[in-house]
Design goal:
Keywords: Calcium, Lipoprotein, Metal-binding, Myristate, Repeat. The protein has 178 residues and is mainly α. Helix content is 57%, strand content 4%. The chain folds into two domains: 88 residues, EF-hand (Recoverin, domain 1, Orthogonal Bundle); 69 residues, Recoverin, domain 1 (Orthogonal Bundle), CATH 1.10.238.10.
Length: 178
């Protein structure tokens, strides 16, 4: 038991079927793809956790379309994907980051946003959750020269475009159509 590697789920190096099902909900990958990604992740991160420095280094190496040379942006990007706020990126958070930053269809990006930012888990995004999406975009420098109120204002604009008040909630279909 001394050589067991702990994952986010508190289990050993191999993923259980339950863990794979949970990850499939947020990644849309097949169980085989998840196992392969996990195997690769553990080769790079034998502890099952990625530090902030490792995360930033990986993004610089992969040359994603975001400015990771800006220290503040790097800190915010890390905070965006560290969903459980424990100071490390676990496998499921890593997959979310990888799939969010890879080019995809609008539908798949909206699906990823919902799965990643629906903190309440109710299948809807409220104003605070939509604001968090735009905070993440600013953190990754996907939005250049944003003013300090950009995320809040843009979230309100999204609700207004959809004909909703800031107290409403948005479902996936509304966001895709809007």
């Amino acid at each position: 038991m001394g050589n067991r590697i702990v994952t986010k789920f508190g289990k050993s190096k191999s993923l259980t079927d339950e863990e794979i099902v949970e990850i499939q909900k947020t990644s849309k990958l097949s169980s085989e793809e998840i196992r392969e990604e996990h195997k690769g992740f553990l080769k790079l991160q034998p502890t099952g956790k990625m530090t902030k420095e490792q995360f930033i280094h990986m993004y610089k190496l992969l040359d994603f379309d975001c400015d990771m040379t800006d220290k503040v942006a790097c800190e915010k990007a890390f905070a965006t994907f560290d969903k459980n706020k424990n100071g490390t990126i676990e496998f499921d958070e890593f997959l979310l980051a990888m799939h969010f930053l890879r080019p995809n269809t609008i539908e798949s990006n909206v699906d990823i946003l919902f799965r990643g930012f629906d903190f309440s888990g109710d299948g809807y995004l409220d104003h605070e959750e939509v604001t968090a999406i735009f905070d993440g975009a600013v953190a990754l420098n996907l939005v250049k020269d944003a003013d300090p109120d950009y995320a809040e204002k843009t979230a309100s604009e999204v609700f207004a475009i959809l004909g909703l008040s800031d107290n409403s909630k948005i479902n996936k279909e509304q966001l895709i159509k809007g």
